[in-house]
Specification:
It contains one helix and six strands. With 123 residues, the protein is an alpha+beta fold. The N terminus is likely disordered.
Length: 123
């Protein structure tokens, strides 16, 4: 029983890490300074809800509206296979970015995380 629980936990950690890797890969492909007002394709990690993301060489924390808050992805925000939502990210100003979910049209604002703060890794 303990071995089964440990195996499930390890598989979950690996899955979460690989989902973050997919998000990071997209950001690495866009490792250039983005321009204010221009939409860029973005994959948002949603496994444990809408918490944070990496964009324009920075970590950002989410400020979702009340209907999109919670420990799980909101309906329409998780494709159930890779725990991500596809959409676009636009830099509104140097300290505000906005993600638009392609599937739902809903938006979430992000502000820069303090330097040194890491993206969350949910369990």
């Amino acid at each position: 029983m303990k071995v089964t629980i440990a195996l499930v936990l390890v598989m979950c950690i690996i899955a979460c890490d690989s989902d973050r890797a997919a998000q990071s890969k997209l950001d690495v492909q866009a490792e250039r300074r983005v321009r204010i007002g221009v939409e860029y394709p973005h994959i948002l990690y949603t496994h444990c809800g809408i918490d944070d993301t990496r964009f324009n060489r920075r970590n950002w924390e989410a400020h979702p509206p009340p209907g999109l808050r919670g420990p799980n992805p909101p309906p329409g925000w998780d494709n159930h296979t890779v725990n991500t939502a596809e959409g676009t990210m636009v830099l509104i100003n140097p300290n505000l970015a906005r993600f638009t979910n392609t599937a739902t049209g809903e938006q979430v604002d992000f502000t820069p995380m303090p330097r040194g703060k890491e993206l969350s890794l949910c369990w």
